TrEMBL record, chain A:
Spans traversing the lipid bilayer: 48-70, 97-122, 143-162, 193-213, 233-259, 301-318, 325-345, 357-375, 396-416, 428-454, 466-485, 515-536
One Pfam family named in its UniProt record: COX1
Name the UniProt record assigns to this protein: Cytochrome c oxidase subunit 1
Compartments in which it is found: Membrane
Keyword Metal-binding: yes
Keywords annotated in UniProt: Electron transport, Heme, Iron, Membrane, Metal-binding, Respiratory chain, Transmembrane, Transmembrane helix, Transport
PANTHER family: CYTOCHROME C OXIDASE SUBUNIT 1
Domain Cytochrome oxidase subunit I profile: start-end pairs: 31-594
Gene Ontology cellular component list: membrane
An MF annotation (GO) of this entry: heme binding
Region annotated Disordered, chain positions: 1-23
Organism lineage string: Bacteria, Pseudomonadati, Bacteroidota, Chitinophagia, Chitinophagales
PROSITE patterns to which the protein is assigned, alphabetical: COX1, COX1_CUB
Bias (Polar residues) ranges: 1-12
From TrEMBL, chain B:
Protein name: Cytochrome c oxidase subunit 3
Organism: Chitinophaga niastensis
Entry's family note: Belongs to the cytochrome c oxidase subunit 3 family.
GO annotation, cellular component aspect: plasma membrane
Signal peptide: none
Annotated GO MF terms: cytochrome-c oxidase activity
Gene3D superfamilies per UniProt: Cytochrome c oxidase, subunit III, four-helix bundle
Subcellular location per the Swiss-Prot or TrEMBL entry: Cell membrane; Membrane
Coiled-coil segments: none
Transmembrane segments: 20-39, 54-73, 85-105, 125-147, 168-187
Domain Heme-copper oxidase subunit III family profile, first and last residues per copy: 16-188
């Protein structure tokens, strides 16, 4: 039955293709307009993805380097001197290089990989395909969005190679350290390049976000009511809303910081002495920057995790052949997270002298986020419960996502309490918490998305066996890396420190740190294996022979295997039902394009 | 691409929709600035002073330019292209005049002993007014593009969407300035 339906819809598409043959060859593309300054959302998605992968390799490699220092503070690695030069004299990473590596690792992973690489890729790919649109509302702005990101990348890359090194005051770039070039070697031109790059990045995010929102609100195909959209689209929607409203605030914070650096203003600076000399700056407040930064900074973590949540919801439903459990509750909790995201920023600032009375409200609102998060976790588990689960790399990574989201989320309840935070802030506990809940989880969501939609991107499959190896090593490795950090943090071991071997209370962690560093190297190697799999499969992967390899209901699988610009050769299909009609009325799945039968009730 | 998009169902033009979201975004940026201003004002060492008087003149200029762009839109819809071209030119000139007034305001501030690197309250004026001025100049650039399009002979545009988008944006920066002026006058 289901087979028949697929064949039937395929025929329709073929038929349509014949009718509107001239549509597809509407405009001849040159190499430049097809692969470089492309306006096709699918190509822009690939551009974001591959740029993101390159950044991810660099960012992850930086973490390997600074883990070498943390794990083996007394050892020397002569090969380090040959790649880092005077930053690693005698084979030991210098303190300045260490801080630069930590800062760049954070900046690259948070912004360039998990924001641009994740939502940039999948919002671009899936929004038009899943809502039934030819392209974005403004393909030109979409193209600009990528090229602003590219420019931001170039500037950030340049900063890695300047003589005084890149910015190294931590990825949050707090003043006064970041505002004063004389304060440290990492606060010189590196910070200017960092701010320039981030300003370009914000522009890129805004151009992209505007497009995503107006496309999915205005250009849905006939019958695609908001409540018929897949959860991926809902998550991209809330992600874009968060970005559009919070990135401009970050930009205003950066503008004030730039003025402090170069125009002699004192927005963030007051009563500062450098090398015994008093500066003229007076009346500024460094805390002001933290407010502006975290007003973006907190929504930013949801900008990272929401797309992963959406893709995991979709992949879990497809691979367990069951409708998503609690569709409306899923949307409601996304909405709740989106609202709460703007009301909790001060929980990053409990120990800055924040009024404890005010802190109590931020504690309450922070803990409230546990409610929608728990609803989502419950719904994911119930979706796969008693499902006919197909264990593909995509579904494994989705299940892995749920696991890490739970274990990382629970420690968020600890840190959200202002009293416990006094002890735990700036320790390895925080590192463990946010790496599991937002770093590893978001990566798992991204991997799930890549494995699942790779056939749509390149018309080929990624190698499954390598995918399984990739999953299991990453999953076990992630827990082995981050779980022990909780104990280090509870014992008070601070984050960001170059060398903790001088404290006798942390001596006990020497072996543990070595262990973590070794696992980091292994996990990094497996990520390289994934990258190999990715690029190898683009050219040599198993070819896709049917349009709908996962037997999914959504619209992207009704397009031809190598869809041209415009996605559907004929008419855009009309939508008649929601996206999750799996195992309904004895049928494995019913595509969204199939009308509701006379004896059938709509969802 | 145009023929492809027309067949799609849509309520308001996507470009207009994007503009509204962009305006929300720009608003958030200024909310960022003004709330930083409010936070800073409640702390010690805040120096209050009167705004340069020329800011009132610039207000009049930008209000007038809102009127001219409104008329330009009307003329475009009636296909009086000559009047339309004159009116958008006038609007662009008024936009530049507005920016010039703001600049004179800066020099007045400086002569009052309130340079950019002076007291924080003055620095805020420079930054907030300066960033707003850049947004107005962005609108001027958009008008220049429209102007170029109006003189094109090979391709004629009949769609009112671009000029509508430009006009809406122009009114937006106008209203934004009124808000900033009221804000900066009251919260001193």
């Amino acid at each position: 039955m289901s087979n028949e339906a697929t064949l039937h819809s395929q025929q329709e598409v073929m038929h349509g293709a014949h009718d509107h043959h001239d549509h597809e060859h509407h405009h001849e593309d040159s190499f430049i307009s097809k692969y470089v300054f492309s306006m096709d959302h699918k190509m822009i998605a690939k551009q974001f993805l591959i740029t993101g992968i390159i950044w991810a390799i660099i960012g992850a490699f930086f973490s390997v380097l600074f883990r070498l220092q943390l794990g083996f503070p007394d050892a020397t690695f002569p090969w380090l001197e040959s790649i880092l030069g005077h930053w690693a004299k005698g084979g030991r990473i210098s303190p300045e290089a260490y801080y630069a590596l930590v800062t760049m690792h954070g900046t690259i992973l948070v912004f360039f990989v998990l924001t641009a690489g994740l939502s940039g890729t999948f919002s671009n790919l899936l929004i038009p395909l899943q809502i039934g649109a030819r392209d974005m509302a403004s393909p030109f702005m979409n193209c600009l969005s990528y090229w602003f990101f590219f420019l931001a990348s170039l500037v950030m890359m340049t900063s890695l190679f300047v003589q005084t090194g890149p910015a190294s005051g931590g990825w949050t770039m707090y003043p006064p350290l970041s505002a004063l070039g004389d304060a440290s070697i990492g606060s010189k031109i590196g910070v200017d390049l960092w701010l320039t790059s981030m300003a370009l990045f914000v522009v890129s995010q805004l151009l992209g976000g505007l497009n995503y929102i107006s496309t999915l609100l205005n250009m849905r195909t006939k019958g695609m009511a908001m409540t018929k959209m897949p959860l991926t689209i809902w998550s991209f929607f809330f992600t874009a809303v968060l970005g559009v409203l919070s990135f401009p605030v970050l930009l205003s914070g950066f503008i004030l910081l730039l003025m402090d650096r170069h125009a002699g203003t004192s927005f963030y600076l007051s009563d500062i002495f450098i090398a015994g000399k008093a500066l003229a700056n007076e009346g500024g407040s460094a805390i002001l920057y933290q407010h502006l930064f975290w007003f973006l900074g907190h929504p930013e973590v949801y900008i990272i995790i929401l797309p992963a949540m959406g893709m995991v919801s979709e992949v879990l439903a497809v691979s367990s052949r069951k409708p998503i459990f609690g569709y409306l509750a899923m949307i409601g909790s996304l909405f709740a997270i989106c609202i709460l995201a703007f009301l909790v920023w001060a929980h990053h600032m409990f120990v800055t002298g924040l009024n404890p009375f005010l802190g109590a409200f931020f504690v309450l609102l922070t803990l409230l986020i546990a409610v929608p998060s728990a609803i989502k976790v419950f719904n994911w588990i119930t979706t796969i419960w008693k499902g006919n689960i197909h264990f593909t790399p995509a579904s494994l990574f989705s299940i892995g996502f749920v696991s890490t989201f739970i274990s990382g989320g629970l420690t968020g309840i600890w840190l959200g309490n202002s009293s416990i935070d006094i002890h735990l802030h700036d320790t390895m506990f925080v590192i463990a918490h946010f790496h599991i809940v937002m770093g590893v989880s978001a990566f798992f969501g991204m991997f799930a998305g890549i494995y699942h939609w790779f056939p749509k991107l390149y018309g080929r499959f990624m190698n499954q066996t390598i995918g399984f190896i990739h999953f299991w090593v990453t999953m076990i490795g992630a827990y082995l890396i981050f779980w022990p950090m909780h104990y280090e943090g509870m014992a008070g071991m601070p984050r960001r420190y170059y060398d903790i071997s001088g404290w006798s209370s942390f001596k006990q962690f020497g072996g543990l740190n070595e262990f973590i560093s070794i696992v980091v190297i292994l996990v990094f190697a497996v990520q390289l294996l994934f990258v190999f799999n990715f690029f190898y499969s683009i050219f040599k992967g198993r070819k896709m022979t049917t349009q709908n390899p996962w037997n999914a209901t959504t619209l992207e699988w009704t397009t031809p295997i190598h869809a041209g610009h415009g996605n559907w050769p004929g008419e855009i299909p009309e939508v008649h039902r929601w996206a999750y009609d799996y195992s309904k009325d004895g049928r494995d799945f019913i595509p969204q394009t199939e009308p509701i039968g006379p004896n059938e009730s709509a969802h | 691409m145009d023929t492809m998009t027309i067949e799609q169902r849509k309520k308001i033009h996507p470009h207009k929709y994007s503009l509204w979201i962009a305006m929300g975004s720009i608003t958030m940026m200024f909310i960022g600035f003004t709330s930083a201003y409010v936070v800073k004002r409640s702390q010690a060492n805040w120096l209050a002073f009167e705004l340069p008087h020329i800011f009132w003149l610039s207000t009049a200029v930008i209000l007038l330019s809102s009127l001219t762009i409104h008329l330009a839109l009307k003329q475009f819809k009636e296909r009086n292209m000559q009047r339309y071209k004159q009116l958008i030119t006038l609007t662009a000139i008024l936009g530049v005049a507005f920016a010039a007034c703001q600049w004179i305001g800066f020099t007045q501030l400086k002569s009052m002993g309130l340079p950019l690197n002076g007291p924080v309250s003055a620095s805020f004026i420079y930054v907030i007014v300066g960033v707003h001025m850049l947004h107005v100049l962005g609108g001027v650039v958009a008008l220049l593009v429209m102007f170029g399009r109006a003189y094109r002979t090979r391709v004629r545009t009949y769609s009112a969407v671009p000029i509508e988008v430009a006009a809406t944006y122009w009114h937006f920066v106008d209203i934004l300035w009124i808000y900033l002026l009221i804000f900066l006058s009251i919260a001193r």
